[in-house]
Structures are given as C-alpha cells and as structure tokens.
Write a structure and sequence with these properties.
about 550 residues; alpha/beta; about 10% strand; extended
Length: about 550
C-alpha cells in the first residue's frame, strides 16, 4: 500500500527534524541527561513538527537503546509508538474527546504503573479545544502528577490555553520553517524518491507551504501525481495559481471607474458557477497582493505567484495609492461579513463593485484618506503653478492687486525640449552641488506618476533622483526613459506634474549622469627608475 510522503519521511530522530534546531537540541539534551519534564506544551502553526516531536519524546523516554538522546527506532517501544500498539503511550484528539468525562478516565488510568514502558505518556493534540470542565480536571492531575506520567499538549492556538495550564508545562514555540530550508528538504526527498524536481519548482512549493513542512510534502505528492518531471508550471497548476486573470480584469475596471466592465466580468464568472463569497475572498487576496507590491521592498518574498504574475501585480499596483488599496480591502471584508447575514449575496457583491468603482460612495476611513490624498495632490499642483490661496485673515478674499505673478522657470529649469540647441545633444551632468532626493519622496513621486502616466512610471522602475537648485535630475539606466523625455512633451509634463503634486513646488527635470573622476597620471618609466635608485641609497644627480 502506498504511503504518503509526509508519513514516509516523518523524522525518526531529533536530528532529522529540520527548521526547529533550538527546540530539538533542548529536548535531546533533556533525554540525554535523563531529566524529562512532567509536562510539555508544544505550540505553533500546522505542519511545523509539533506532533512529530511529541512522538519523539514519547519514544526517547521509553527507548531501550537510545543514541545521544534520540530514540533508536528499532526497539519494541519505538516500534510500538510508531504503529500505535504500545498501550503506555496514548494519543488523544481533543477536538473530538474534549469532555470532562474523557479527562476523568485519563486521571483514573494515569495512577497505574506502565505495562511495558518506563513512562505513561499522554499526547493531547489540539489541546485548546478542551472544555472548561476538562481543563479543570486536567489541571488537578498536572498539579501533582505521578512520577511515571508525562503529559504532552500540542496546540495551534496557545492563547486559548489557560495560564494555569501553561505555567505547569515546559513550553516550546515552533516557528514557521524558512522557505530555503523546506526547498532543500524537498530536493533531498525528490532525489531519494527518483522525482525530477527543479530547484525553481521546489522554491515555489516552499513559498506556497507558508512554513509548513507537511503541506510542502503533500503538495509535492500532488505534483508527483501529474508526472515524474515537476516544473514551476506543474506546481502552479496543482496549487491553483493559474487562471486568475479575471481578478486583474475586475481590479482594472474598478480603478478606471468602469462599474459596467466590472459587472460584466462578474457575470461571466457567475455563468461559470463561481460562488460570490469565493470571488469576494479571492478579491481580498488580490488587493492584498497589490498592496504588498506597492509598499514592500521585496514583494517576491511575500506574494506566492509565478514571476510573470508578480510583474502584473507591480504594474497594476503602480496605478493606485496604498490608501485606495486599503479601502478596497476594507470594503470587500465588510461585504464578506455581510454575506453571512443575508441570502442575497449577489446584491452585496454588486454593491462592493460599485464602491470600488466610485470611492465617493464609501465612507470608510481608507476611502476618505484616498480622497484627501487626491485633493492634496491637486493643491500641490496649483501651488507649483503659482496659484496663491486666500489667507484666513482676509476672510477668504484677496485684496485687489495682491496676487503675485507666476514665477517663470529659471534657466536651470529649462531642460530636455527647453535646452539650448548647443546643449541638447548631451545629457546635463550633475555638478558637485547635486544632492540625492530622499528615497521615500522619490518613491511617492513614482507612485503618483503611476496614476498620471503608467508607461513612464514603468520605465523609471529602479531609478533615483537628485536635486540641483530648481531641477530634479533623474538617474535611470533604461534608455527608453531618455527617448520618451526627448521625443514626447506629454512625458515631460507628466513627470513635472507628479513632482509638483508631491512636493508642492515647481521643478525642471533632466537626466543625471555621474561625473567620472579623471584617471591618475601614471609616472614615466624613467621617473620610476630614479625613485627606485634613490630608495636603495644610490646617488642620483638630476640636471
């Protein structure tokens, strides 16, 4: 009978447990010294090794031939724990045996000495689901446990375990396993099983598993069912990462204010039997990925998707501010909650799409923040153009003749199309007075530029900016940027507008090219020979 990979490759010793070295080292030392605790509390997310370590503890304290604190895996007790035949090791699923009567039975059995092994070990899985009465009954025996009894509690929600229980246990927190650790383990198992697994596919499985080794092995098993050669495409198909272009379509329509287009996309999905609550959940995940792509420094580490899909996220995120994306997530979360209280899920989904398409209909703090940001951008643009606002002292009225003339651009601002003919042929080089623009401010400008001119924003990805007087000098290795700025007036005006809307000041724009330091002049061969002679004490006469 075929055995699943996560069962076949379950660690047999503490050394085989990967990603939890601090915990396994402490447990192994306790077993080696013969000083096991009377109660353990193992907590952490699923698939991180809690149950595995619980069984290793049960085997190690009863093993007849331990090796450096780890069980041998060959003796009668070790085999009995593995196949469940050892009556002195009892596994209890608290999800289905959470009543006070179950714990009372446990207390009555615990007072008896072990039949075969050295210790009676009770492994209580999902311990947070024990009832209040069961917890109180368990607490009584944990206060004064028999010397031959060890309790091991495993849980994914430690905050639900009463403090009175936690204080009587030795607690170990299992962390999510690092993706690179999971990747290396998958590649090792694949080699042993004869699976042709590429390194990129292993890395994608590791990211999808989200720190759980069991989930990673289960997904590897599923991919193996598709064929012995596992590629990134195989993993994406098995994990359901492909075929979600409709999410980009709906988000694009909503960002453009096209409620009809968003509705048409939803109607096509409804014809394909896609449930509205499922669509709402997927859109929440989609906008979350957009927010990560817009704000995170390394979004590829936080978004589980194909490389080409990540580029789509970055491109779509560039056209929206974080406030807009947060408002979309909040709106969809409220919709998801409302769907649980009504039978008309379609109406709720339609209202959500309407709010996503027109932020004026939303009264959430995030929507108001997005509208305020838009107003600030417009105000900064007006200030940059020289429009003067009325002061509070004037009661909203400016006295006649007090308007200041619009400041004309200085010669430093006349760049690109405004350059003098003699200087247009070569990019303007930054002098020593050029100072780097704060990176955070430049990123805000690029984010704003994504709303005004998406193509230019894409060309400026990875660029930096410098300030020299009233000119913003842009350092960009993309040749498309220079071509766009030289040949297209709309491109130049878009960049100036984005700068004005963020800074509130009017700047010229130009390319930045770092000055190259002149190479040091090499001394002549004769001069080198004379210096070497002088260094050795040989008299030298220079005429």
């Amino acid at each position: 009978m075929y055995q699943a990979l996560y069962r076949k490759w379950r660690p047999r010793t503490f050394e085989e447990v990967v990603g939890q070295e601090p915990i396994t080292t402490a447990l192994k030392n306790e077993m080696l010294q013969g000083k096991p605790a009377h109660a353990y509390l193992l907590m952490g997310s699923r698939g991180t090794g809690k149950t595995t370590c619980a069984k290793l503890i049960a085997k190690a304290v009863n093993c007849l031939n331990p090796h450096d604190g780890s069980p041998c895996g060959e003796c009668e007790c070790c085999r009995g724990v593995d196949n469940g035949s050892l009556v002195d090791v009892v596994e209890i699923d608290a999800a289905s045996n959470n009543g006070v009567d179950n714990i009372r039975d446990l207390r009555e059995e615990a007072v008896f000495l072990p039949h075969v092994a050295r210790y009676r070990v009770y492994i209580i899985d999902e311990a947070h689901m024990l009832s209040v009465g069961a917890v109180n009954a368990l607490l009584k025996i944990m206060e004064e446990p028999p010397e031959h009894v060890i309790f091991i509690l495993a849980t994914t929600e430690v905050h639900k375990i009463p403090a009175t229980i936690q204080s009587r246990c030795q607690r170990f927190d299992f962390k999510r396993i690092a993706p690179e650790v999971i990747r290396d383990r998958l590649l090792y198992i694949a080699r042993q099983e004869g699976i042709d697994l590429s390194e990129e596919a292993a890395a994608l499985i590791a990211r999808i598993a989200d720190g759980g080794m069991r989930d990673a092995l289960s997904l590897l098993d599923l991919c193996w069912a598709h064929g012995s050669e596992i590629s990134v495409q195989t993993v994406s198909e098995a994990a359901g990462l492909v075929g979600q272009d409709y999410l980009f379509e709906i988000a694009t329509a909503a960002a453009a204010g096209d409620f009809t287009g968003a509705m048409e996309a939803m109607e096509r999905l409804a014809g394909q039997a896609v449930e509205y609550d499922r669509l709402c959940s997927q859109l929440i995940g989609h906008y979350r990925n957009l927010l990560v792509a817009a704000t995170a420094k390394h979004p590829e580490q936080l978004i589980v998707c194909l490389p080409q899909t990540l580029e789509q996220y970055k491109k779509q995120a560039a056209s929206s501010s974080p406030a807009v994306l947060m408002d979309a997530i909040r709106t969809l979360q409220d919709t998801q909650s409302a769907m649980t209280r009504t039978t008309s899920r379609r109406a709720e989904m339609e209202l959500a799409l309407l709010k996503l398409s027109d932020r004026r209909l939303s009264r959430s703090p995030e929507a108001l923040l997005a509208r305020i940001e838009e107003l600030e951008a417009r105000l900064n643009r007006l200030l940059a153009e020289g429009v003067r606002l009325p002061s509070p002292e004037s009661g909203g009225q400016e006295p006649a003749g007090s308007a200041e003339p619009v400041e004309q651009p200085s010669p430093a601002q006349v760049t690109f199309a405004g350059m003098e003919p003699s200087s247009r042929s070569a990019p303007e080089k930054a002098s020593a007075a050029a100072e780097p623009m704060p990176e955070e401010q430049w990123q805000q400008i690029l984010q704003r530029l994504g709303v005004i001119n998406k193509m230019l924003a894409g060309a400026l990805m990875g660029s930096h900016a410098y300030l020299r007087g009233q000119t913003v000098l842009v350092e960009c290795g993309n040749p498309i940027f220079l071509e766009m700025m030289r040949s297209n007036d709309f491109t130049r005006q878009s960049l100036k507008r984005a700068i004005a809307e963020v800074t509130g000041a009017r700047y010229g724009v130009g390319p930045y090219t770092a000055e190259k330091k002149p190479a040091a002049e090499e001394p002549s061969p004769l001069e080198s020979l004379l210096k070497e002679a002088e260094g050795r004490g040989i008299p030298v006469t220079r005429e």
